[in-house]
Task: inverse folding
């Protein structure tokens, strides 16, 4: 088994080191906070001759993703990182990558979407890509971010998958935090992640057409095949996590992670960096005698409906902590959790809670309030409001210039 | 000999049977281009007429590798292809070209084109300029000439067609410091082939704009495509030149000069200017553009 080296580094540096170890042939990027450090570190690695990649400083995120579409279609490993508006600008290309089965790997450094413009982490940006066909993996700390980037290429480039993969990590909270990270040697990463071998690529030796048009005669079949690949990715994500464990000695991956759920009456469901806070809160609340547990949704697409159902359907109530909202309906994760539970033999009550939305702080008091709300819902036996905003400053709403 | 195209590739690089309209100027351009590139090329096309009529699954006339991604990013996509070829050790053997329409080049794709030019990729961008969004039903682009009636610049009581002159994209490309910029016309296919060969012999980003009449969009009989292209050049409205960076333009001189009305009157898109007494004010304005071109370029 590979021996890692533990050192303290910024989250963005850990990502850059992971990406470097994966030997991408072409990197293209455009600066946007809070993703920028990642591409700066990679630029320095290329400048130093430590990383032998074509590094293309694009004129926009749209061009960055487009450059990688061209490079990936020409048969090489590709990588980019972006955030927020940048991911929105890439969206049209991301649909294309998934539809054309080009396995580009992205880092999505989560940040709120304009308007209002701001830099705080929430999931509105990456979750707006939900239906594009991209695989989305949300990580809770820097180590998991490092590990997941090594895994992402292996998942994306599997010939039974061939889909773009995005590693989603909360901006600042993970990209700019300094944490101890165990990194691995190049030869060990090489053994885990062999070079990319494309099935189809552009070459004059065997001319092919990429990006054809079609109509109602074939479109459904293409979408069906893409859907099947995304569903197959559920097994692949688990398998790669196990391979990672045998190679590197720790299991960081899979579709979901559970914490103290077995006897839990109340289960919190969330994604991303808030999980670390929630683990600690669960320990403290358990000490107070509250039977609370936690489920981390790591793979948002493909959605782990069955695994989630098994993990939560015995609870009395489930509180979903959402950092992305479908305006006019409800939290996006809450919608999926409820849908996953619909076929369960017994269904817990589900509270849809906007928590940490727009980067609002989530701390132990937040979790206490969530658990109290859950208790009240259990007392009355129903969920009075489909979506609640936790920590909403209702007293300030009259001072805004729009009607609340 | 300008009018005779002899293919050494026997139509293998771009086969008959595609879905272009009868009399399509763009297909003439494509044949002349591939005659210059040969088989060792990767072609990138943005969304547009060419993409639509050559790539409807599972059929294609392309005998060379061909990639379509989206409408507004062909230059970025080609940059990525070039980068990947470098990494695969094929950059010297395989050429990267773009063939796209004026909408995807002058308008929605201009940002990506500017980025590709500024970064200096070894890519040849070729625009077949049919002067409007033809594939979607003839809407004005920034390459549409002043006075042309299109679906989105229609003639009416308050309108005499497109109100603004054509965007001078070759000049914009030259301003980026591109080592080679050329204009051409499908009236002279051998000249296209020569210019593409010239472009491919030069390292860095190159741009060639090929004037390509569209029978449907301009409103003329499909037997007249070449004739309309020639008339456009002879009026001075479409100057034909080559620009090597840092050198004076090499201009195709006009052996015979004709008034713009000889060209305009054969197209439905300009009918409102020439019918009856004729819209003398606006005809004079268009003639002035041709006169200015002749003076400016020394045609």
Result:
């Amino acid at each position: 088994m590979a021996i890692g080296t533990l050192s303290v580094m910024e989250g963005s540096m850990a990502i850059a080191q992971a990406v470097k170890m994966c030997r991408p042939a072409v990197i293209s990027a455009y600066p946007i906070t809070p993703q920028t450090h990642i591409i700066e570190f990679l630029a320095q690695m290329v400048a130093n001759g430590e990383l032998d990649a074509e590094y293309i400083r694009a004129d926009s995120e749209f061009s960055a993703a487009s450059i990688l579409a061209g490079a990936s279609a020409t048969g090489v490993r590709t990588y980019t990182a972006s955030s927020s508006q940048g991911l929105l600008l890439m969206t049209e290309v991301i649909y294309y990558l998934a539809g054309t089965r080009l396995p580009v790997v992205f880092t999505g450094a989560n940040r709120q979407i304009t308007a209002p413009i701001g830099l705080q982490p929430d999931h509105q940006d990456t979750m707006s890509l939900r239906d594009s066909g991209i695989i989305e993996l949300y990580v809770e700390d820097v180590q998991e971010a490092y590990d997941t980037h090594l895994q992402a290429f292996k998942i994306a480039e599997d010939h039974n998958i061939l889909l773009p993969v995005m590693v989603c990590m909360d901006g600042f909270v993970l990209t700019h935090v300094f944490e101890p990270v165990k990194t691995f040697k190049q030869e060990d990463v090489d053994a885990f992640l062999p070079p990319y071998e494309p099935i189809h690529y552009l070459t004059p030796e065997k001319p092919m057409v990429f990006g054809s048009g079609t109509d109602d005669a074939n479109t459904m079949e293409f979408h069906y095949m893409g859907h099947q690949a995304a569903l197959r990715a559920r097994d692949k994500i688990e398998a790669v996590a196990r391979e990672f464990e045998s190679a590197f000695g720790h299991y960081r991956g899979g579709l979901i992670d559970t914490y103290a759920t077995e006897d839990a009456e109340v289960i919190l469901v969330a994604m991303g960096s808030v999980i670390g806070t929630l683990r600690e809160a669960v320990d403290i609340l358990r000490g107070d005698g509250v039977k609370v547990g936690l489920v981390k949704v790591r793979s948002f697409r493909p959605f782990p409906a069955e695994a989630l159902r098994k993990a939560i359907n015995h609870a009395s109530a489930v509180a979903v902590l959402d950092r992305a909202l479908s305006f006019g309906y409800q939290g996006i994760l809450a919608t999926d959790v409820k849908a996953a539970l619909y076929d369960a033999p017994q269904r817990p009550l589900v509270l849809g809670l906007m928590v940490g939305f727009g980067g609002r702080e989530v701390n132990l008091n937040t979790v206490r309030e969530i658990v109290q709300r859950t208790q009240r819902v259990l007392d009355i036996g129903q969920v009075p409001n489909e979506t609640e905003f936790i920590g909403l400053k209702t007293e300030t709403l009259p001072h805004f210039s729009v009607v609340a | 000999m300008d009018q005779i195209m002899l293919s050494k590739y026997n139509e293998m690089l771009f086969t008959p049977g595609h879905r272009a309209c009868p009399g399509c100027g763009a297909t003439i351009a494509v044949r002349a281009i591939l005659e210059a590139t040969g088989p060792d090329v990767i072609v990138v096309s943005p969304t547009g007429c060419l993409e639509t009529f050559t790539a409807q699954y599972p059929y294609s006339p392309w005998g060379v590798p061909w990639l379509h991604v989206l409408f507004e990013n062909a230059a970025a996509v080609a940059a990525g292809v070039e980068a990947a070829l470098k990494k695969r050790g094929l950059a010297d053997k395989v050429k990267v070209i773009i063939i796209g329409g004026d909408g995807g080049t002058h308008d929605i794709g201009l940002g990506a084109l500017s980025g590709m030019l500024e970064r200096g990729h070894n890519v040849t961008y070729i625009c077949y300029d049919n002067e409007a969004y033809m594939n979607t039903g003839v809407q004005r682009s920034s390459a549409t000439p002043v006075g042309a009636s299109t679906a989105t610049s229609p003639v009416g009581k308050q309108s005499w067609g497109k109100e603004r002159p054509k965007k001078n994209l070759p000049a914009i490309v030259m301003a980026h410091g591109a080592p080679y910029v050329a204009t051409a016309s499908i009236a002279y296919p051998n000249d296209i082939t020569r210019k593409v060969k010239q472009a491919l012999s030069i390292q860095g980003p190159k741009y060639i704009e090929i004037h390509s009449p569209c029978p449907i969009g301009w409103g003329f009989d499909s037997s007249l495509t070449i004739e309309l292209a020639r008339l456009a050049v002879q009026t001075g409205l479409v100057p034909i030149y080559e620009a090597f960076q840092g050198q004076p333009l090499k201009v195709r001189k006009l052996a015979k000069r004709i008034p713009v009305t000889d060209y305009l009157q054969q197209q439905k898109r300009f009918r409102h200017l020439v019918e009856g007494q004729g819209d003398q004010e606006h005809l004079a304005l268009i003639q002035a553009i041709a006169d200015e071109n002749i003076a400016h370029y020394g045609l």
Residues 273 and 279 of chain B are 5 Å apart (CA to CA). Residues 280-297 of chain B form the longest helix (18 residues). Chain B touches chain A through 45 residues (CB under 8 Å).
